Amino acid sequence: MREGLRERKKRETRERIADIAMGLFMARGFDNVTVAEVARAADVSVNTVFNYFSTKEDLFADRQEMAVDLPQKVLREREPGESVVRAFRRDYLDAIDTRHWRHGLNLGSDVFARIVGASPALVARLRQIHEEREEGLARMLAEELDASPDDLSPRLVAAHILNTTRILTGHAVARMLAGEGWETIGPDLREQAEKAFDLLESGLGDYGPGR
């Protein structure tokens, strides 16, 4: 469906406000910037900011809806006969190779992590997003595999996979924060990821093959 002029202008305004807010957060820290200051810098009213973002945290996590949906997207797009673990292995290794933001491996992810770590409000928001990602993936697994309400397997599988990718990314970002270059982080992360997904494969095996 083609985007209309009104929708395009709203999207561009939203993106501009979020970009300006992120610039201020990077320069001064999340807790030291007010919504009123973001509004002034973006040349809009405070009400306009809140029309697009319900909370100040939403200004920072403006991709949260996409982030919550990404694990379900991996599940939806797995190949026929491909298990859930193999699909996430393929997706994570691709993110390493392309340094894609979907797994927090992009350029600037260390700056993002530093801002989050300095703000208890953002730490809480990122934890909430992780829980929503896990719940969404578990729900989709349960629906697709017709699991009974008492079957904990979808929740366990979702938790194992997403905690694995979170730990891998956290390890890589910690090394970025310490000043290490991607030329050494990347190859080692790929090796660590292969080992981690081997462990998942040995435990979860062919759970949930694509149809």
Automatic annotation (TrEMBL):
Alphabetically ordered keywords of this record: DNA-binding, Transcription, Transcription regulation
Q: Which residues form the signal peptide?
A: none
List the GO molecular function terms: DNA-binding transcription factor activity; transcription cis-regulatory region binding
| InterPro entries xref list | Homeodomain-like_sf (IPR009057), HTH-type_TetR-like_transc_reg (IPR050109), HTH_TetR (IPR001647)
The residue ranges of the HTH tetR-type domain are: 11-71
What ranges are recorded for DNA binding? 34-53
SUPFAM superfamilies in the record = Homeodomain-like
- Gene3D superfamilies, A to Z: Homeodomain-like (1.10.10.60), Tetracycline Repressor, domain 2 (1.10.357.10)
Please give the name of this protein: TetR family transcriptional regulator
Q: What organism does this protein naturally occur in?
A: Nonomuraea polychroma
